[in-house]
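User: Sequence in, structure out. Go.
Assistant: Echoing your sequence, followed by the structure tokens.
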Amino acid sequence: MESVRKEILPGVWLTALRSDKFKTACLSVSLLTQHNRENAALNALIPFVLSRGTSRHPDMQAIVSGLDGLYGSCIEPVVRRIGEIQCIGFYASFPDGRYLPGGADVLQSVAALMGELLLYPNTKGGLLLPDYVEGEKDKLLEIIRSRVNEKRSYAMMRLLEEMCCYEDFAVPRFGLEASAEGIYYRRLTKHYRNLLLTSPVELFYCGSADFDSLETALTDALCTMPRGEIDYDIGTDIRMNAVSEQVREFTEEMPVSQGKLVMGFRLGECMEEPNLPAIYVFNAVFGGGVTSKLFMNVREKLSLCYYASSLVDTHKGLLIADSGIDADKLDAVKSEILAQLDAVRNGQVTEAELNTAKSCVVSDLRSTMDSQGALEGFYLANAIDGIDCDPNELAELANDVTLDDIVAIARSAVLDAVYFLCPDGEEDSNEHQEI
């Protein structure tokens, strides 16, 4: 795969990945802005409102009809949080021209429609339509309120809210309920116009089109985008140390049969010059899969929990370990999770464990090359982090990770906060049991 990156308009960067591997092509546009308590819900609502209708396609039925005429192409609104940067926009998937009758190519038409969705919403008097805004606001509120239904992800969210209470990272991807409730169409219109003026924009394409025709199609689609002073002063606050000397512990009771324990660590000094492949391999050794220490020892050998795993957020510098447990095993599980981390800190990792972890990381990175959606997310994150490499290059670096590398990362990690979603004695019939 051949990649090219270029600024095609002021503050608008295009990453193009030329590949003949897929039968479809993908195209995305992402506006980047600082994720914070005040604006997260406003930002999240915008792509959904814009997808309701444009000046030429005034409602969703007209948009769907237009996409059907492009051989069943699809354009979806997207809201993401990468570190403390919110990414909002659209993701399109459409047939690659090589597989269309007579070699027809819908790239230009899809790019034009995506530009139309972004720049020419259906308005009245220059304002977003109140009915569209209210309808999508109700759906957004439903998304925000429904987060409590999936207890494992809810517990993770609550840990981050408490652990990062002084940071914008505490705000969930779709924002806060109170903020969403205060949105109205005039305010949303003003915010939308400001985003167009100030946001850096990331475009991504993966398909067989040559770069010149791609650049022309996208420049034509976005050339009328109003641009003011681009806000490049956006980023993520990576804290190296725990908030306080004492580990903060939080407990919340709910009608659940299975307790949810989540432990949050700061990755610490290793984030000053992060060795990403080493962090990935460390996580695979500690809790990132079915061969990890958490799974093999806490769950399988000691039978202390229903599940035990870990993940790392390299954008924010966090390590999160979570487990589904019986309430009376809380202290035992906490102690054992810390004991497994100590084992890595002390270099108690066998050659087989290290090699298996490296193989898992390499496989995961290389499998990214098999999915356009995964590639789009990978290159968007790289653009935000200022990293210039592809998944295969990271995979090769992962093969070179040593035991000393992962020991250093384990020793750098500091426990900051612990959250426990505790059964209150009543069972929730809708609870999904994690095993």
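User: And one key feature?
Assistant: The two ends are 39 Å apart (CA to CA).
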